[in-house]
## 1
Amino acid sequence: MREPHHTFIIAEAGVNHNGDVNTAIRLIDAAKEAGADAVKFQTFKAENLVTREAPKAKYQKSTTGSGNQFDMLKALELSFNDHLILENYCDEKKIKFLSTPFDFESVDLLEKIGVEFYKTSSGDLTNTPLLAYIAKQGKPMIVSTGMANLGEVESAVEAMKQTGNDQISLLHCTSNYPTAMEDVNLNAMITLRNAFMLPIGYSDHTLGIEVPIAAVALGAEIIEKHLTLDKKMEGPDHQASLEPNELKKMIKSIRNIEQSFGDGIKSCQTSEENTKSVARKSIVARYDLKKGDKLTLSNLDFKRPGSGVSPRYINLVINRRIVRDIKQDERITFDLLE
């Protein structure tokens, strides 16, 4: 799923289409234009996802007002035909279609469409029956771990691996919308990698673009970030999402960071060669010297440019005599020495 030094970037359209397939298509266009590798939606039936009395989360109340989750989610469902339209449009635009299933029926729907891999939500990390059902499809899984402790992640990983599917990537996440910087705990992503020896990434709910960029620098192989056409639109997730120009800026920054990784070999870069010749120093005569004079630390100096003998070889120069007169600041070379 990941090329060398290429972070897999998911534009999380989620439910920011507000139940309208044409808005969803515009989100696909925006994700493609921004340079994302995949655009992700959410697949669910409200009847299978929540009870009719399930309360809204605090952030959902602040963005959508009072009421219950059922009514809110029912208005955000996409039909099977909508999914086909969106998957076909993604194929046409050459961007990967991805959706998070929230129930068994939704997994079956995505299987009919022929999705290449799955993304699961933080809310379902402890829903091991659903995780196992998805894992049995035999496809790669990207698993968000918001709200979880390490033991809960371990149980989830075990439930998936017991099906014979070990194609698992773990995303660190903080499930608050938006997430305050002090709650990001980005080092927990490293903890996940060390604990499970699986590919890791980061699903971001902060308001800016800095944390996903930092996550890539720390080794994230996958980045997920919410996308909206307009943060002022009605709906639960728009305010904690990026608008298209912001997503494009984030992705450009990540691609720049990737280029900076290099091969890890410490060496002088070709672009440094000119600077090297003028910035480094050579051993030079501190003042005019006569043929036969012995070179010492008192009659030598170290000055730019670096086209003579390097100061690192001073022990090969001192206490040797010169074979001709040398002018002040003249660079010492080995052919001047007895």
## 2
Amino acid sequence: MSVFPEGFLWGGAVAANQVEGAYREGGKGLTTVDLLPIGERRFPIMRGSVDKLEPIPGENYPSHEAIDFYHRYKEDIALFAEMGFKALRVSIAWARIFPQGDEAQPNEEGLQFYDDLFDELLKHDIEPVVTMAHFDVPVHLVEKYGSWRNRELVSFFETYAKTIFSRYKDKVKYWMTFNEINMLLHLPFIGAGLVFQEGENKKQIQYQAAHHQLIASALAVKACHDIIPDAKIGCMLAAGATYPYTSNPADYMEAMDRDRDSFFFIDVQARGAYPSYAKRFFKDNNIEIKMESGDDEILRHTVDYIGFSYYASRTASTDPEVLGNTTAGNVFGSVENPYLPKSEWGWTIDPTGFRITANQLYDRYQKPLFVVENGLGAVDKVTDEGEVKDNYRIDYLQKHLEQLREAIEDGVDILGYTSWGPIDLVSASTGEMKKRYGYIYVDKDNDGNGSLNRIRKSSFYWYKKVIASNGEDLSN
């Protein structure tokens, strides 16, 4: 018998801004992701260096069309159903519901789109797992209020939360508040819509914005529990254990501090209060969090589960000679681990780190976990016969699922596994299409050319077998 529990939620994960396209259709407002071109400008903007809050003429903006899921979702959901999906993680584009973010009344056309999307999923017995905010702040909130640096966004987000909970209470039972909330510290524009002016104290702004997001998340948790008592609502972080490069205690301290950058957010969302180490950090860095009366009480509304992405582990060192030898990995800087291989994009491949990370999170929080992103970005080629043979992806996923199985054997409570990008989509970090994750190939290149036709890859049939056996058969 499989060690994966009965009712395990097998599936895949996408984000509205990376698949939907139709970026100004149906009354949708402009979002921060709609300002991220492919190419060299992308990363500076994601880090908060923004000149104008509008698309730049002549640049290519992948999110504007993406893979046209907005018009093709029925076709794509049928393919997910063919694989046997039990769940699909999607996000709601905040600006489809409130185009500017601060309106009193929602956009009915946007609400209806997600009604139709959820109905289509449920028709195929696929459970919607919905992220409320996935890297797409309405641009109007950035222009008028300074985005999450401003406390007013808390009330706007609470209105948005109550609107979608009330609308979809009979269709959605799994929710998450902010996608990879810890990205606020690494890519502050994409994570929280933050734009910095020269001379500003960036850390002060980031942690004040983090406080506002944490308050908003807690209020959303309360609203969800009030409006949909039988639902589960979680938080979500970009996870990955950090190893000390050597047994030098200084390396261990560095690794611990790196982990705490991520744990900080989840400590508050899962435990209901600021951790003591954060208070020390604020003191040492002259950060003063402005709190309102009642904030401590609001934060006590804690999440039901911890959602996390896992792509790579990280390695920390304090040795200047070692620090020059770095590698990529879901934006997080890391020194190169000599024991581990890397992907085409320089991301460390560490299946055992997946098990370590799951154990680390469960030991810390003692709440159910949900693996909501994991996958391999790679260049896929279509053969002359029209096939995509991605055995390298199968090998990656097989080894990671073997380690997830070990984590379950360890006693880690895991609700489900939704691999990232079950269909090719726009890469969040690079904006590329050639960095593909899916079981389904989408005919589109980095320049936006292609038919958008869908092709089942070899991994499509492999994952179908995995789901049918509830993870018992992981063989290639």
## 3
Amino acid sequence: MRSFTDLADLTAAKGEHLGYSAWREVTQEQVAMFADATDDHQWIHVDPVRAAESPFGGTVAHGYLTLALLPALMTEIFQVEGITMGVNFGLDKVRFPAPVRVGSRVRGGAELTDVKNSPAGKLVKVKMTVEVEGQKRAACVAETLSLYVA
């Protein structure tokens, strides 16, 4: 994990790749719980028998579930000390180039692409790429925005 002592230290790393999270398995239980939480019970996510006949050969995670993993993945990659809080400010761009098959393992990679001054602190853009083990194309590429307050 990369640790920044303060916002100045973080700002100095603009343009750098910050590292990778650990690999984690995406389970059918997670997918089912996400389906219940979002009322998105499309068969490709929750019906293993029917999904086995699909081009994916089994169930796949919701794209938004993959996106929802980003905060957990980011906390494994880097931390900023010397702040009073960090809050999710939004997203600039999100793409889902490839599916995440249930049972596969994913990890996140983080690139610090921008740091801007804000009246409250620093607005930080991190390009997160979610990789699937053994798969060439990323499952998710998202430009995350976080507001860090000193």
